[in-house]
Amino acid sequence: MLATLMAAVMLSAPLWQQTDTIVPVDPDTRLEVSQMGGVVVVRTWDRSEMRVVSDHSSRERVEISRSGRVVKVRAKRDRGVAHSVDFEITIPASMDVEISGTFLDIDIEGVQGEVSAHTTQGDVRLVGGGRYVNLHSIQGEVTCTGARGRLEIGSVNGSVRVRDVVGEIAGETVNGSIILEDVQSSAVELVTTNGDIYYGGTVESDGRYFFSNHNGDLTLAVPGSINATVSVSTFSGEFDSDFPVTLTETRSGGKRFSFVPGAAASASASCWATVVRASSWSRSLAQSGCGVRRDWSPQKP
Asked: Which of 28, 80, 127, 288 is packed most tightly, with the most Cβ within 10 A?
């Protein structure tokens, strides 16, 4: 009886198998992957081919289709929807990439084209990306390193981390911190409801920078001198700077004010900082809700 039961269980369980396929592609082709769950890993090489390696059950199959300059990779099932399927895809570095999923972790590295990566529950990691990059997760951490171009990045419940990016940046999260390090940008907008904001990057002439959080700390760590007018608004918080500032305007009993770093009377760049409520920091270097500092690296939350 036991042997019969074990045989029945073995026959009913799906067998796992691997698909390994190489197809020719043009370097200017766009890759599209839409998947319910699993992990999608994208890497690059110097060949005009795309390699797709996937681990999946025997009830599922990998489908690669073409439509114009778009190559689509899907996991399909004869009955119902393919659930958790892992992909490792290798493509030419110049290809654009678009990946979306529900319970999906996304890991992309080496791509020089445009990148769009969206998931409902999972982490998104990108190293590279060019021209236009859009990364988002509802439940997960989103990180971007080395992008060159406009970046839009966000999460609902998770932190956002950006490093070594050149270009315009828009970052947003509801419950999580936003950390930017070693960035070069003339236009930055960072918004969070519950979390800290740290900006470590350039403040360029004629640039525009906007930072807002409702419950957290805001730190601007600027290298060298900055040529900017900084406007600060806080409801329940403090302000501190580790170098001299020249106040140009105060309003609302000092809760709203503008200043120019140093003794300069005017500046070409503009920076807006809004802090509704800020808690004191435990770090010995900063004990304020809003601060402007030089050459300082944050303790990661």
From this structure: 288
